[in-house]
């Protein structure tokens, strides 16, 4: 009976794990909604999170969306999603000016909600989303680092393994005195802190943001992220990950009608393909972006995913279970890898110690224990009322041995 009980406990835990995965939120989108004022006087909705919501709906995914907006915001692009809006006095508003026959765009912020979104704004059940996509549009509107933090061990178990994507274009912008959007020449503190220390984040940028970076800055960012993807317009994209540097080619289309939202579509398509375990998320993301550029600006962001809809099978319970199994396997591999790394580090440290060090330490520890007992006997026999009458040379020698042993032991524990 005891043997059955031992087998039953992990089996029940495994069944509970897969049952909880079936009810898990598929996608969390966090970012600011915008009003985009263009040359013809129209004021369409915009923002990375708006395009991501349109693409997610085309994939048949109902996302949790957390954003900040004023009363003038058009929220219709989020129809079908679970929307949570942090109210603000104004909606982030960009004034778009096109020069050089429409090939160069200048941006100016004319209204700013001045609210910094963080994980604290996200409902508890949405925090457990399988995939998280963060889309800041300005430098201080989103605390990306908060989504990498855990309140406790239970919080880490509750939220489980997550795919986190950071569309960090906004972190590489600064605002001039007149509201003009100006580029940053090096990775911003917000971007670096948003990558964390555990290499869990997939970072998405364009060559516009990364072109001024030195090789050292690029190396630092690549080394801090799980993967870095840099889109290059008609030249495709470049992916940096543990296996090297890889080119992602574009999917040719008959006519490019408008490129707005192509990068957001690429990032969203990549993250959804990654969560689903597709073998080549980059190729899938490139295909999704090619559908978005075939749509006119006049209907965006609502229509950005229209040419995707129906071409990607919706998530079924079997797909969610497969993703859960993949996540469980990845977690197990992570634990094994960490154990091997720590074991190898310990072995390398032991090899650097002089021969006989461990034997000497063991002998000193044994002698120290025996000496302590003998010293206790001396105190009882040579003192009155437990007090020591005099200190001799032998006592000083014992003290030196104890100090030496203590220093060796502390050094070993520290390493």
From TrEMBL:
Region named Disordered: 369-415
Pfam family, one: PfkB
SUPFAM superfamilies associated with the record: Ribokinase-like
Signal sequence, renumbered to the chain: 1-19
Matching InterPro entries: PfkB_dom, Ribokinase-like
The Carbohydrate kinase PfkB domain, residue ranges: 226-295
Entry keyword set: Signal
Biased composition (Acidic residues): 394-405
Gene3D superfamilies: 3.40.1190.20
Protein name: Carbohydrate kinase PfkB domain-containing protein
Lineage: Eukaryota, Viridiplantae, Chlorophyta, core chlorophytes, Chlorophyceae
